[in-house]
Amino acid sequence: MQQLPKQPVHAGQPTPADRTEVRKLAHAVDAALLEEMAKTYHRDDTPLPLVGPTPPVEQPGRSSMSSKAVDRNVTILTSSFLTAAIGGSTTAILWASGHANPTVIAWICGGIVAVPVALTLPVLALKGLMKSAKDVAQAAPAPVHHHYNGNVTVDQRAIHATTRGLIANTRNQLPR
Fold first, then answer.
1. Across residues 8-30, what is the average pLDDT?
2. Who's near 172: CB < 8 A, 6+ residues apart?
3. Stated pTM of the model
C-alpha cells in the first residue's frame, strides 16, 4: 500500500481541537440555560377538573343573546345610526340657514326616527311569518293518494346527475 502524504490544514477550516472546544462551549451554554430555566419556569402537570366549584361569571362586553336577538339588535343599531346621521345633518342645515323653526325641526327629527322604525318592524314581522309558514309546510307534507284501475307497473328509479362545466347539458332520460 502506498502512504498518502499528510494533507495541509487550509486556512479558516476548524481543526479537531477547535471542534471539541465548540462542543464544550455549547454544552456550557445549554447547562446555563437549563439552570436559569429551573429558576423561572414551572410546569404544573396535575390534571384539571372537568367541572369546578366556581360558578360561571358574566364576561365583559355584550351579554349573551340568541342569534335572532343579535340580528334584530344589529338592524336597530344600523337604522338608528342612519337616523342620527340624516337627522343631524338636516337639523344642522336648518339651524345654519337661520330659518330654524323648532316645530319644523321637531317634525323632521321625529319623522326621520319614525320612518326606519315603521319600515323595520313590518319587515321583521313578515320575515317571521314567512319563516313560520315555511316550517309548517315542511313539517307536514301533504299525503299522496293514488287510485288506479287495471294493471299498474311502478318504476321508482332515481337519476342523480352532477352537471359541471362552462357549457353543460343534462338530459334526464330513463333508460329503455
1. 83
2. 159, 161
3. 0.23
